[in-house]
Amino acid sequence: MTTPKGEETNPEAIGADADVWPDSAPRDTQARVFQALIDIMPDRIYAKDAQSRFILANKAVARLMGKASPEEMIGKDDFHFYPKDIASGYFEVEQALLRSGQPLIACEQLVPNLETGEPGWLQTTKVPLRDDEGQVTGLVGLARDITERKRFEAEIRQRNAELAELNEKLSKAQQQLLQSEKLAAIGHLAAGVAHEINNPIGFIFSNFNTLDAYMAKFHGLIAAFADAQHLISDPSVVAQLDSLRKEADLEFLLQDSRELMTETRDGLTRVKKIVQDLKDFSRVDASAEWGAADLHRCFESTLNILANEIKYKADVVKLYGEIPPVECIESQINQVIMNLLINAADAIGTERGTITVRTGVDSDAGSELRNVWFEVSDTGCGISTEALPHIFDPFYTTKPVGKGTGLGLSLSYGIVKGHDGRIDVSSALSSGTSFRVTLPITHAKA
Question: Is the residue at 73 inside a domain?
Answer without folding.
Answer: yes
